[in-house]
């Protein structure tokens, strides 16, 4: 049963856009079929097809009520309404790749001529497994038991089934991925409240995108529905950018770098970006609720050699192995990527966007239309 918590203010979602956008055609995985050999076999093939073809998909019937989701949005809203000086007490050492706690807006220069900076705020809450301190401001501190229950439910009700289905699809033991994603073991999973504050139409005209094309660094990212359209994905097959439509009663899920490395690229890490919302939604802020799943810190991100599927299909090396460079652990990978991501920078600095973050891995520019700039070292 959900843990009782203090009363939270209600969260009212904005209306969906009425613009006719070029929506991605994403499939929906129905977890009500999970739990029988026949259902799991069907869902496993459904999952691997979705991962290989699109990388993003919806999940429904995951046994977490909309009321519980709404309470988390309300909690995120109340957090962001705190005075800035209070939120700034919870900023970690961002320049060295730390990320649990508060990341303030304004660290990235978007337009050098006008001095326009980003307006993205992040609050990350790590696992509740004894490996991480939990020093939070009110109202998070007052609702911490409920936050923990919600985070653990995401792990047991969504991530564990997805990891079982992925193992079945790769003809591995069913517990292969759950064994390297145990909640009680140290890993850099986190629940996130994320706020994109609005820009004026004139400011939006100065930007290519709010967040340029990128991939996530972990296993799966879970994104709860919120109606402000801004998320776009790059189709694996055509390379076209498509909008992701908010869909009632679902989670949006995408595959990330760790799964790509572990499968030698058979599961692709999905390229996505956050762009300017349609005109009928540009006057509102965009609040996000997400969960980032990652393997245990000590897991080495080498290509799985035990999968008959990967062997048959020829996916036996990832970028590190192919280049002869050391294969990082998940901890090494996480902090290298986070240090790169959190560095204060000019957002579209070409040198930063193509930096080598570990021997054998160079970042890439994923947007054909990004106006990169040369910044002197």
From TrEMBL:
Coiled coil: none
Isopenicillin N synthase-like Fe(2+) 2OG dioxygenase domain: residues covered: 194-294
UniProt xrefs under Gene3D superfamilies: B-lactam Antibiotic, Isopenicillin N Synthase, Chain (2.60.120.330)
Positions of the Non-haem dioxygenase N-terminal domain: 29-126
Protein species of origin: Neolentinus lepideus HHB14362 ss-1
Listed InterPro entries: DIOX_N (IPR026992), IPNS-like_FE2OG_OXY (IPR044861), IPNS-like_sf (IPR027443), Iron_ascorbate_oxido_reductase (IPR050231)
Protein name: Clavaminate synthase-like protein
């Amino acid at each position: 049963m959900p843990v009782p918590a203090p009363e939270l203010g209600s969260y009212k979602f904005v209306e969906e856009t009425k613009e006719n956008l070029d929506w991605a055609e994403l499939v929906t995985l129905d977890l009500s079929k999970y739990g029988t050999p026949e259902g799991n076999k069907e869902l496993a093939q459904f999952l691997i097809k979705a991962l290989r073809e699109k990388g993003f998909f919806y999940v429904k019937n995951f046994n977490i009520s909309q009321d519980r989701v709404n309470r988390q949005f309300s909690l995120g809203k109340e957090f962001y309404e705190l005075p800035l000086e209070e939120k700034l007490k919870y900023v970690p050492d961002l320049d060295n790749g730390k990320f649990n706690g508060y990341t303030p807006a304004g660290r990235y220069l978007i337009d050098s001529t006008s001095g326009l900076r980003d307006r993205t705020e992040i609050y990350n809450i790590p696992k509740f497994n004894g490996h991480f301190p939990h020093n939070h401001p009110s109202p998070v501190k007052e609702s911490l038991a409920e936050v923990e229950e919600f985070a653990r439910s995401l792990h047991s009700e969504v991530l564990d089934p997805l990891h079982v289905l992925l193992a079945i699809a790769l003809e591995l033991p069913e517990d292969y991925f759950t064994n390297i994603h145990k909640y009680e073991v140290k890993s850099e999973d986190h629940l996130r409240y994320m706020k994109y504050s609005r820009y004026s139409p004139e400011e939006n005209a100065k930007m290519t995108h709010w967040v340029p094309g990128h991939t996530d660094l972990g296993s799966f990212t879970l994104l709860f529905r919120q109606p402000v359209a801004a998320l776009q994905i790059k189709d694996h097959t055509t390379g076209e950018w498509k909008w992701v439509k908010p869909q009632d009663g679902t989670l949006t899920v995408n595959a990330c770098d760790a799964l790509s490395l572990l499968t030698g690229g058979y599961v692709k890490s999905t390229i996505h970006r956050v762009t300017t919302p349609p005109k009928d939604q540009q006057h509102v802020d965009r609040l996000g609720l997400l969960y980032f799943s990652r393997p245990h810190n000590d897991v080495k991100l080498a290509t799985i050699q035990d999968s008959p599927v990967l062997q048959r299909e020829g996916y036996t090396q990832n970028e590190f192995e192919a280049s002869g460079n050391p294969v990082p652990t998940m901890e090494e990978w996480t902090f290298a990527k986070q240090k790169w991501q959190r560095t204060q920078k000019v957002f579209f600095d070409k040198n930063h966007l193509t930096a080598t973050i570990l021997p054998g891995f160079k970042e890439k520019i994923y947007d054909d239309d990004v106006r990169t700039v040369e910044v002197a070292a």
